Amino acid sequence: MIASIFDLMAPVLIAALGGVITERAGILNIALEGLMLIGAFTAIVVAGFSGSIILGLLAAATASAGAAAVFGFFSVRLQANIFIAGLAVNLLATGLVTFLSGQFFSTRGVIRIANMPSLPHIPFPTGGTITPAPLVGLLLVPLLIYLLNQTPFGLRVRAAGIDPEVLKGRGVAPGSVQFQAITLSGLFCGLAGAFLSLRLEAFVPGITAGKGWIALVAVFLGRKSPVGILLASWLFAFADAVAGNAQGLSWLPPTLMLAFPYLITFLVLIGASALMSRRKHAERKT
């Protein structure tokens, strides 16, 4: 079960790490779900026809980064409402994937491609195997910490979110930095979506199943810290694994088990919000 938790954790973790990049730049990226969906579809198509997992991952990252750039163009360059632009990406991603499925695969259901390459499986210390996805996610945590805190790009991203005037004073356009952050976030989401579909070796309608939204919750539950996001993602994956294992129990309603991870997400978010409100209230009193 522990091995499966890590595999379930990886897509949420990687997408959430992408989400924290834009959040540090002062942009709430609610398009994570749609960007993951684009990555999942692209990965299966490219990996299936090329026979290469690597090409599938690269294509997924590129496609989602491109979609994120379009989102950034409208939300940053044209100053469109960030919520409307993000929701538009989510809706358009669903529509686009459905259209392409019908046009090229004559189905709006499950897409399986003959001779689809498989992700390698790595033995896990406690038993079972994992795909490379958790290792990629875990590797991205320290890399992102370094990127955001030790590089000029990371410092510009943080300045764009905290005090854009500092960037303007140095001749750097805050909008340009935010646009770059959104595009990089899309790359992360593309990888997250790719690992979702490549693990199944198929594209399934609704494959993201709200994981982009859960990733957004993980950003805030983890207090916009890569390490905190890692812990939050593991918690959600644990709930998902428990729900999956409990579906075989006849005395538990299957619908309840399907909703269990989202219920846990909701309760944790409410609890975290209440705790933060109490802390702020206590600070005001002192």
Describe it.
The protein has 286 residues and is an all-alpha fold. It contains 11 helices and 2 strands; from the N terminus they run H-H-H-H-E-E-H-H-H-H-H-H-H. The chain has one domain: Orthogonal Bundle (ABC transporter involved in vitamin B12 uptake, BtuC). The chain has a two-stranded antiparallel sheet. The chain starts with a helix and ends with a helix.
Question: What tags apply to this protein structure?
Answer:
transmembrane transporter activity, 11 helices, globular, single chain, 286 residues, membrane
- Give the overall form: globular
Count of β-strands: 2
Q: How confident overall, as mean pLDDT?
A: 90
CATH topology: ABC transporter involved in vitamin B12 uptake, BtuC
- Note the gap between the termini: 46 Å
Protein name: Inner-membrane translocator
Organism: Sediminispirochaeta smaragdinae (strain DSM 11293 / JCM 15392 / SEBR 4228)
Keywords: Cell membrane, Membrane, Transmembrane, Transmembrane helix
Subcellular location: Cell membrane
Short synopsis of the structure:
The protein is about 75% helix and about 0% strand. The protein has about 290 residues and is mainly alpha-helical. It is found in: Cell membrane.
Helix and strand arrangement:
Layout: H1 2-24, H2 32-50, H3 53-77, H4 82-105, E1 122-123, E2 129-130, H5 133-150, H6 152-162, H7 164-169, H8 174-200, H9 211-221, H10 226-246, H11 254-285
Antiparallel strand pairs: 1-2
Helix pairs in contact: 1-5, 1-6, 1-8, 1-9, 1-10, 2-3, 2-4, 2-8, 2-9, 3-4, 3-8, 5-6, 6-8, 9-10, 10-11
Subcellular location: Cell membrane
Pfam family, one: BPD_transp_2
Main location: membrane
